[in-house]
Amino acid sequence: MANPENGVNGLSIKEGKAEIGLGIFFTIMGIVFLAIIIPTQIKYVEGAYPQPRFFPDLISALTVVLGISLFIQGYRKNKANKENQETYTFKWHETRLVLITLGIIIAYVASMYFVPYLPATVVATGVLVTVYGQRKIWKIILTALLVPGIIYVGMTYGLMIRLP
Amino acid sequence: MTPIGMLFQGFLSVLQPINLIYVIGGVVVGMVLGAIPGLTATMAIALVIPLTYYLTPTQSLIMLLAAYNAGTFGGSISAILIGTPGTPAAAATVADGHALARMGKPGKAIKTALFSSAFGCLFSSIILILIAQPIAKYALKFGPAEYSVLMLFSLSIIASAAGKSMAKGLIGGCIGLIFGCVGMDPSYTIPRLTFGVLKLSSGIDLVVMLIGALALGEILSQVESVASGNTSAQLPPMKTKDDKSFTRTDLKSTILHWFRSSAIGCAIGALPGLGPALACYIGYDVGKRRSKHPEKFGKGSVEGVACAEAANNAVCGANMIPLLSLGVPGDTGAALLIGAFMVQGLTPGPLVFRESPETVYNVYAGLIICNLALILVTLLTWRIFTKICSLETTIIYPCVLMFCVVGVFALNSSLTDVWIMLFFGVLGYLLKKFKFPIAPLLIGFILSPLFEKNFRRALILSNGNWGVFFSSPLCWIFWAITALSVFYILRSKRKDKNLTDGM
Q1: Is A52 close to B190, i.e. CB distance below 8 A?
Q2: pLDDT of B145-161, one tens digit each?
Q3: pLDDT tens-place string over residues B291-312
Q4: Residue B130: inside a domain, yes or no?
Q5: Distances from the Cα of B80 to the Cα of A134, B66, B250, B282, B378, angstroms
Q6: Of the residues A44, A63, A90, which one is the last residue of a structural domain?
Q7: Are residues A125 and A96 in the same domain?
Q8: What span, in angstroms and rounded, lies between the C-alpha atoms of A7 and B87?
Q9: Is residue A42 part of a domain?
Q10: Nearest-CA residue of chain A relative to B464?
C-alpha cells in the first residue's frame, strides 16, 4: 500500500480500508476478551449477582458489535466512493521520529532503575532536543541543564519528593 | 452561615497571599500551555494535577480552575498571533483575531479576547453560584438506581463526543470503560484484569492514564510535525499605536455581544458533552447575524473576537454546574477536575455541598478571582507571549515530555506508573492516528467505576430486580433526558452527515 503517486514515502491507507481493518481488529479483540481474558482474569463468584464479570463481559460484547459495525461502515465507504475518502498516512520520516522518541523515553525510564534522576534526565533531554533538529549547541546545553535542574530543585526542595 | 457569608469567607480564603500565588501560577501555566498550539487547557490541567497532590483542596482546585480558564483563553493568543488556534475552543477566533494582528493590531485583538473571556467566565460563575446548590439539594434524593440512570445519561456524552464516526467514538468509550474495570472488584474484592501485576490491583490511576493518553499522546502526534520541519512559528509585526488598546468605542460595540455570547456559552457549558469549541462557533455565528456590521466578520472584526471568546470562556464556569450539582463532567476538562476533586478526597455531586461547603464556596470565589488574575497577568505579559508563540518546538516538546515523566513518577514515587503512562501514551497516539476521538476514552474511563458501582449496588439492594431502574419519578426523568439526549445527538449527527454528503 505504499503510495508513490502522491509522493508519500511510507504507508497510505484509504479510510474505508482502514475501518475494515480496525473493525476486524476490535471484533477479534472483543472475542478474545470474552473467550479468554475475562474467564482467566476474573474469577467466578458462587451465588453472586451480578457477577464481577458482568460489566467487562457487557463491554466486550459491545466492542464486538461496534467492531462489526465499523467493519460494515468501512465496507460501505469502500463500495460507495473510493476517491473522496480520507487517507491515513504513515510517513516514514514522521513515524521514525515518533519511534525514536519512544525509544529514548523507554531507555530513559529504564535507566532510572540504575542511574540517578539528574544525569539520566540531562542526557535524555539533550538527546531529544538534538534528535528534534536543534543544532545550536548552547540551546541544547542550556535546555539539557536548565530543565532537569529546575525540575530536580522544585521536586526535591519545593515539594519534598525524592526522585530516583 | 448564609450563602453570602460563605461566599465572603471564600473570597477571604482565596485572597490569602499563598492562595493567590497558586491562582497566578495556574493562570500562567494555563496561558502558556493554551498559547502553544496543540497543547490544550485540558493538558494544562493534566500537567498541573500531580503538583496539586500536596496542596489543600482549596489551593488545588483554584489553581486547576485558573489553569482551565487561562488555558481556554490562552488558545486565542496563538490564534491571534500566528493564526493557529492553541486550543479547539479558539478555532472561531482565528479569522478575526489573526486578521486584526495582520492589520498591526495584535494588542487590540488580545485585549478584546482577554476582556471578553473574563466577562464570559464571570457571567457563568454568577449563574453557577445562583443555581448549582438548588440543583444539588434535589440531587440528594438520588439512590443507586437514580445514579445509575444518571450515569447512563452521562455515558451518552460519549456519543456526543464521538466526532464524525459514531462507531469509532463508542469503541473509544468501550476501551475507556474496560480500563476502568481494572483493579479490585468493588463488591467481592477479587482482582480483575490485573494479569498478576500487583500494582494494577488498586486500579489504573486516573492521572497516569490522562497524562499518558492526552499529554504524551498529543506530544507524539506533534513530534510528527517536527519531522516535517515545523520547528518554529512566524510572528506578525506590531506597528501602530492602536494595536495596544481596547477603546471605549470597542467596549460599546462589544458589550451586547458579551451578554449574548456568555448566555450561549452558559447554556452549552451546563449541558454535558458539548464543550467550548461548539460554544465559540455558535456565539460567533449568532453574533454575526445580530451585528450591525456582519460584513466585517472574518476580516478583522473586534466584535467577532468578542463573540467567540465570551462564549468559549463562559463554558468554563458553566461546566461546573453539572459537575458540582450532579457529579457529571461537562467535558474532558471538567472530567479532569472530577479527578482532582477525588484526589482531594471530595466527590463532586450533591454531597459535596454538605460535606465540604467551604471548599465549594472557595471554588466559586476562586473562579471569580482567577478572572481578575487572568486580566492582570495578561496585561503584564502579553508581549512575552508573542515570544513564547515563537519558541522552537525542538525545545518545548522535550521539556513537556520530561514534565510528564516526573509528574507521573511524583504521584506514588513509582516507575511502574511511568510505564503505564507510556502504554497510554502509545494508545492515545495510535487512536489519534486512526482518527479516534480521545474524549470518549477518558469519559468512559472516569464513568466506568461510578456507573458499575451504582448499578450493582442498585441490583443488590433490590435482590436482582431490574425494575428498580424504573421505580421512581427521578429515574423516569433521567430515562427521558437520556432518550432525548440520544435523540438529539443522533439527529445532529444525521444533519452533519447530510451536510457533508451535500458538499
Answers
A1: yes
A2: 888 887 787 777 677 66
A3: 888 878 888 888 999 998 999 8
A4: yes
A5: 27, 21, 17, 19, 14
A6: A90
A7: yes
A8: 31
A9: yes
A10: A49
Beta strands in B290-445 (DSSP E): none
The CA distance from B67 to B74, in Å, is: 10
Cβ partners under 8 Å of residue A6, min gap 6: A12
CA nearest A127: which of A97, A149, A155, A150? A97
Phi, psi of B29, deg, nearest 5: -60, -45
Give CA angle at B103 (B97, B108), nearest 5°: 55
- If you write DSSP's letter for every residue of B140-207 in order, what string do you get? TT--HHHHHHHHHHHHHHHHHTTTT-HHHHHHHHHHHHHHHT-EE-TTT--EES-TT-GGGGG---HH
Among A64, A97, A131, A132, pick the best mutation site for testing chain B contact (most B Cβ within 10 A): A132
* Domain assignment of residue B275, given as a range: 3-136+204-406
* b/e sequence B148-187, b meaning 16+ C-beta within 10 Å: bbbbbbbbbbbbbbbbebbbbbbbbbbbbbbbbbbbbbeb
Which pLDDT does position B430 carry in this prediction? 92
- Residue written as grid cell 476521538: B437
Count of CB atoms within 10 A of residue B353's CB? 20
Domain that holds residue A159: 92-164
E strands, B212-296, in order: none
Cβ atoms of residues B61 and B16 within 8 Å:
no
Which of B59, B63, B174 is the best mutation test for A, with the most CBs of A within 10 A? B174
| Closest among B127, B375, B360, B129 to B262, alpha carbons compared | B127
Q: In chain B, how many domains are there?
A: 1
Q: How many domains does chain A have?
A: 2
Q: What is the pLDDT of residues B325-360, one digit of tens each?
A: 777 777 777 878 888 888 878 878 777 777 788 888
User: What is the per-residue pLDDT for A37?
Assistant: 93
Helix (H) or strand (E) holding B313: helix B302-318
ipTM (interface pTM):
0.91
Total residue count of chain A as it appears in this document: 164
Asked whether residue A58 falls in the same domain as residue A112, the answer is no
Helices (H), B83-143: 93-102, 106-139
| DSSP-assigned letter for residue B292 | S
Q: Do A24 and A42 reside in the same domain of the chain?
A: yes
Contact yes or no for B405 and A109 at CB 8 A: yes
Contacts of B397 in chain A (CB under 8 A): 128, 132
Query: What is the distance between the alpha carbons of residues B388 and B33, in angstroms, rounded to a whole number?
Result: 10
What's the DSSP call for residue B231? -
**Displacement of CA A82 from its chain's centroid (Å):** 28
Contact B261, B288 (CB under 8 A): no
Task: Decide: A98 and B429 in contact? Cβ < 8 Å.
Answer: yes
pLDDT of B465-476, one tens digit each?
Answer: 888 899 888 889
Among A31, A60, A90, where does a domain finish?
Answer: A90
